[in-house]
Amino acid sequence: MEISLKAEAAGVADPWPRYFADRGHPGARRIGAGVEGVVYGLGDGQVAKVWTGRPPTELTRQVYADVAQHRLPFATPEIFQVQEHEGVVVTYERELPGVPMRGDSAHEKQERELPAHHGDALLAVLRGLASVPGTDAMRQLTVQGDDRPLWQGHNRFQDALAALVVRAATRHGSALAVHVPDFSAGVERTLDTLRSLPDAPVTAIHGDLVPPNIHIDDAGRPVAVLDFGFYTTAGDPAFEAAVTAAVWDMYGPYAGEHTAELTRLFARELGHAPAALTAYQAVYALTTYDLFGMGESDGHFRWCAERLRRNLVFSAQAP
């Protein structure tokens, strides 16, 4: 009997364990769900993801393989097989160890003092990813919300980002300008700073190292990094550090303090120029502000507007 993908919505028991059992995985069980889809544990170090969001492409699979071939101190996703059933993509992937470092700041309140082991874990992840050279497949990826590969027509990461900022500001910049004073001049200041940054190593960029995307073991050490794709590309490792400092705590009562603290930590321990980190944080806000909603009713939009108002490069404030 054919499994209906509408069964669960109609109140019928989850059909996917049977689907996997029919394909040689009798112990399949649902272990998690997110914006991308539902994950099932299959045993033998393997999981399956039933995609409800944008499914991975062959290019995504290649990027996963490019990262996984390096001996990192933590595991990363690897897609072994792709199937399609009733129009739904199913991927079979490496099972990643550990548990999320903590919940997302939109749902879990963070304390004022950042735990020292969190900083250590973030530094380990940033150093690990910065050791993976950028590849052609990474350069061909499109940042979510955009209409072309980030590197298309560019040889420098900073120039590619500058072009992305122009496209993103053109999309709905007028809506952001309502909430951000001197918006057009701020965009130009950001572009000028971005284009003036020196060349940097081109390495793997995850682009979305929020707490749930880093898994740790009982000792607090990072053992897995997951959910590549949102802003994954090849580029300056300082961009990864800047974005991580900004998104680690986005919505908590001490978010601004945490961003400043992590930015200082990454500048000191990883040798990134503070001005570059600040410029990259402005770029992230300028290129993601409209991905989930428009105006003050959307939390991410509000966060981006607030980050730009406080950004020293965008707003031309003296450090």
From TrEMBL:
<dbReference type="InterPro" id="IPR002575">
    <property type="entry name" value="Aminoglycoside_PTrfase"/>
</dbReference>
<dbReference type="Pfam" id="PF01636">
    <property type="entry name" value="APH"/>
</dbReference>
<dbReference type="InterPro" id="IPR011009">
    <property type="entry name" value="Kinase-like_dom_sf"/>
</dbReference>
<feature type="domain" description="Protein kinase">
    <location>
        <begin position="25"/>
        <end position="319"/>
    </location>
</feature>
<dbReference type="InterPro" id="IPR000719">
    <property type="entry name" value="Prot_kinase_dom"/>
</dbReference>
<protein>
    <submittedName>
        <fullName>Phosphotransferase family protein</fullName>
    </submittedName>
</protein>
